Amino acid sequence: MNLRKIDRRLLTILLIVFVQMLGAAMALPILLLYAQRQFQIRPEYNALLLSSFFAAQFLAGPTIGRLSDKYGRIPVLIISQIGTVLSFIMIGAAPNVAILFIARILDGITGGNIIVAQAYITDITPPEKRTESLGYIFAAFGLGFVFGPALGGSLSAAFGPRIPFFMAAVAAALTVVLTWRTLSETLTPEQRMKNRQARRGGIAPGEVMNNAPLLAILLIAFIGQFALGLLQATFALFGDAVLFADYSDRIVDLGIGILLGTVGLSQFLTQTLLIRRVLPRFGEVNLVIVGSVLRGIGMFFLAIAVGPWFGIPGSIFFPIGMGLMMPPLQSLSTRTVPDEVRGGVLGLYQSTVSLATIFSTALGGVIFARDPHYPYWLGMVLSLVVLIPAYWFLKRPLRKPKSA
To answer: Shortest CA distance to 328 belongs to which of 402, 383, 390, 401?
Structure first.
């Protein structure tokens, strides 16, 4: 990544995303333990706490995206960030479980900051560069999750379990200031007026069903995220039950932390070094196919795991596959609709991802209870199944509908 050649606005939005994800990574990995230890919440309700955010984001995502099309990226981005600040403060100060759920739902409803950040990037990036630029978003994600969990654990150990949430609120508040002081609006008043005067400012269900390329993209994204959700919901349990079954609790915690750091680092390196080298050679759709194969390989190593060494290739191949696959899908989705609903289609895309996460995190524990290896066998199968719509999509050129 040559920083001198990158748009300053892109660097700024990536810094904002990194700070946002650093704060989230400090707090969210310990959220369920915090709820269990502070409020004695039962495991099944803990799972609902995890899913409530994604359910709220699923319902609100398209609306957030459409509002950014109609009223501008910056005001919607700032409102979304303020919602995140308030939610972390509420979690850190929560007197009961009800406030935890309200805070998570609030963050999900206003959690369009990533959606709007992606829309902002598509505004300032030409179509042929969107996959690479959107990939940097995933790099910022990965970098945040390399440092965030360790920082959050250290803060919790040193100052108490509530402090990471307040520090996450500070990080989110910093993104509000950065957005307000450093970013300029990308949509002109004329563009925003045109978007408001469009038929609905969004995409009707019938239009989605008649848009075959967009349907294929959403299906691939759903299946890909479903596999990721299975891993998210079970990986710590899998590490304790399988990868580090014969080790002490201290080694289990350390080993899982190292593997999660490997996931974040692999994702970061994929977006900053690998994707920009392979994209010109293979193209976006081929990267979706290659990424699916690599995800399947990563899941296979976990599915056959009998010790910690199997976790290393799983923690490398899976995030590389996700990193190669997801940014091209987002970029391709913006090229299947008119320009005035780019934010709306990214919101629809994010809602699809959230829906997959809701189902996969809810089912992951149930499947894991039957056999710890089953979620990873299922993830491997899904990674191969997704090759069917990806290959079918490869044979059909993108057709962007005409503007209203």
So the answer is: 390
